[in-house]
Specification:
Length: 123
């Protein structure tokens, strides 16, 4: 890498945070980048009960702070009760796990992009 890349991972809970801190961050650091993780928050607690509205708020916050930072989410889709395209995915009975994840990811990106017209979220 020729320039430092800064990545913020919005994660579901402590397990995902540790994975970012212990596996992904050192890997990226060896290549000239920096990665940190922050848990999705609910008043009075960290982790669990992930709602897209909370993730979206955190992603918006970080994207508006610095345009040179990449923001990713690291959420276990199993057990989520509210997410863009979730109802559609539930009707995709014979779809592969990759297809289901792609549908959820694309819908989440589209939702974030629609509300941040002045911020480039396509990195």
């Amino acid at each position: 890498m020729s320039e430092c890349v800064s990545v913020i991972a919005v994660v579901e809970g402590r397990t995902e945070q540790r994975f970012v801190e212990e596996v992904l961050a050192p890997y990226l650091a060896n290549r000239g980048g920096y990665m940190t993780a922050t848990q999705v928050r609910k008043k009075g607690q960290n982790g669990g009960d992930v709602r897209f509205a909370r993730v979206r708020t955190m992603v918006h916050h970080f994207l508006k702070q610095r345009s040179d930072t990449i923001v990713v989410s690291f959420v276990d889709y199993y057990g989520i009760s509210e997410w863009p395209a979730l109802d559609e995915v539930r009707r995709m009975a014979n779809a592969s796990p990759c297809s289901l994840a792609e549908k959820l990811n694309s819908a989440a990106i589209a939702e974030v992009q629609s509300e941040l017209v002045d911020v480039d979220v396509s990195k």
